[in-house]
Amino acid sequence: MSARRRRADARPARRTPFALRPALRLGRRLAFAKAGRAALIVALIGIPTAGFAAVSVVVQSTQPTQAEALRYDLGHAVAQMQVVGPDLPGMRQDPVQWQYTESAKGSPVAESDGEARFADLLDHVPAGAVSIPVTSAQIVLTGPKGPIGIQAVEGSVWSRVLDGHWHVLDGAAPTSRDELMVTPATLQRLGASIGDTVDLTDPVTKRFTITGTMRDAASDPGAQGVFLPWGTTTPSTTDAGPAPYDVTVYLASDAPTWSEIRALNAHGITVQSRPVVLDPPDERLHGAGLSSPIGWFLGAMALLGVFAMFEVALLAGAAFLVGTRADTRSYAIVTSVGGDRRFVRSIVAGSGLVLGLTGAVLGVALGTGVGVLAFRLADNGNVGTWPGLHIPAGLVLSIGAAAVLAGLVSALVAARAATRVNVLAALRGSLRPAAVNPRAERRRRIWAPVLVVAGSVMTLACGAGVLLLNDRPVQQDHLAWIVGAGVAIGPCLMQLGVAMSSPWLLALVSRTATRLGLSARLAARDARRNPVRTVPVLASVMSVVFVASVVITWSASQHAQFVRDYEYRTAVGVATADVSLSNEDGSDSGYDASVTAKAATIVSGVLDHDRVRVLGVVPDIAGDRPSTISLLHSWGRTDCPTNDTTSCSRYLESQDTSAPHIWTGTVDDYAVLTGHRPSAEVRDALTSGRAVALWPEYAHDGQVRIDAFRDQTSNSPAITAKTRPDATTTIPAVLDVQTPRIQVGVFMTPETAERYRVPAVDGMLVTEQTEPITPAQSDELTSAWQSLGGADRQRWGGPYFQYETGPVDAQGIVKAIVLALAAAVTIGATAVAIGLARSDGRRDDEVLDAVGAAPVLRRRVSAWQAAILTTVGAVIGTLLGLLPIRALTLRFTAGPTGTTHLPFVADWPVLALLAIGLPVLVTAGTWLFAGRRHRVALRRTP
To answer: What mean pLDDT comes out for the span 703-723?
Structure first.
């Protein structure tokens, strides 16, 4: 051998250059070689992409840009000013979020006792600046259809300077002090037209001409409103005026600088200045901007996006694996002509990249269009809700990139499988499944139980850790969130372990199905022998049902906690309103029987479907003036560690004018409050001059005791169980405990109260309703009181009825949405499984046709396959979904005083619907729609 030949043999062999472009070209051609398979993968990637893109457009369109926010806040003005605190130094505002303020520790404003005066905003307007003061007032306006009570905006808001915050719709702006504008809805409610006159009857009397219509840009088209010239309700000839904090001054010129704003902060005044907002100084407050809703949205989108990518990777990966097996001969030919493993993997990965890119482009385009259409349909002109159409280009491109990545990841497992084909067998046309790798089987037998056990232990341990961390008196870290991540990671590990053991589960099902007939046996064997397309579908169903189970159990536990802590005011179907009066400074002034009688008469004119009852109450809240307070003596426990609506309710120690403890009325009134006809004992007690105790804590030895405390004011020391009363009164009583308890402590007739000198005053309106008070009725009640209340309107704000509905489950819509989404994903996953089984089982169909099997057999096999996959996945997913909530409610002690904890409550009917009803629904749908077309049996030769 020559020296040259020896040197050549000694050189290391060069690696063949990687032909990427030919591989991608072949991948693109193979991607669309089978139109049905390509359409399936594109749909699996494109539909979630379209949904995320549409939601992104809609949500982003609810978030105003800085220019849009300034457009509404200021219109064309350069600044606005408001009083937010006393005229004392120490307060500072954020330059951008101008209503976010902080008070320096130890400063005069921080140590203020609440008696400091407020600055007059008009005295601090910059010299020479054009200003527009604006305030609001409650007025009564009378038109052709009668008087209405309504909130009016007072100031020249029709000025072009404020166009953007308010907008003139029709007519002309007022030019004199006897002209006003209204919203279109108010114009219709008054029964008037532009140019008509209306009468302002309260708080002053004056006639106005309607010159046009306008509205607040952040209000709905049907909003009510009146717009008056400045000084209409508070003439300059009087000292009375609006409260300083109710006035806003808009500056048309001379925007304050940051130094001027800081000087105004020392007087309790905050300023939004356009130049400062657009170019803020480096003096932002620490907490400003931390609660932006867009951050929560992006976090939720990321979480849901990862879950969606997981689902897409499972289902699209199964489709790629089936396609790879169908194209085995093509890959064998590529290998036979010199293509190495890298080249084959690139072909399959290129197919995933092309199909992912196609699905991403179509999904982004479709989703953006749907989002724009949804915005156009939902936009009603309210800039507070829909400030403008915003297409978040960065977020939409990120969604598209994630879709492309999902397509590529989905093809990677198939790319690995494509390099392990038996070239000679594939060239002969053999489609026998690849033999199981013994090493992989051994690893699966080890890791599957390890992951299940480790995931369950992690979930329970981290759940207990979260409870312990939340019980700490001081929580200034994020340890609970860090430990709580284990509650989410643990179930994921368990699902991964279950997915790895799915072939064994399917084998167990296959042995069981041998007793259920030929179609069940064929379906079970097919599912067991083809794990590449059945295991991903089972895992997809399991994961989505797991999420649904977690949400359903969490909502059921929350509702159980709500029911546990709910306190009934009265029986269900009863509406109550207290007529508690107040002084000019807002302090409580008790009740007045004449005001209550007037209120009952006015309310009866609006709520004329049932009698409005007037019941007496005993005041138990002190005002500014010394008075005698009468309180029921409680013979039970008062130091409640937690609220218990049965044995230790907060109502027993509360002082609330809407929930008094001592009531007076007739036997019929008692029947209305309790919701049933009183017993003979109760009726006899009331008619014979005794009282009725509805709580056992108030009854002792057949009597109730009322303690009187004289010369009490709002500044007096709190009355406790150790406070000695100035006088006591005992009244014979019977016990009538309600189930559930209601917020009525003791009930007696007015005659009994007068006999024992109990200071009861008519102060509660009670009526029965078949449904809650509607917003229209509330508006009508307010208008009636403002129109007919006279001078008493200053003492009482008007009727506000609280309707007792009981603990209504508000989570029903959440459960319905979760079930619908779970059903949609499960139906989609099952459709993919059946479609792939039909595509992959063409040879099996030919064999069945050749031996004379009935066409209905294929439908039965498809239905059984759907039943097996969905039932196994749904049952396991439902059971796993219980574990995280159980971990977060795993408590062995009562916990610190004053804390209430979430109970573990599983909504078994809904969970049964999820675990059993959903597979039944999917199986029925498969039976109806799958396998109806008969394919001609052809025996193909390779």
So the answer is: 82
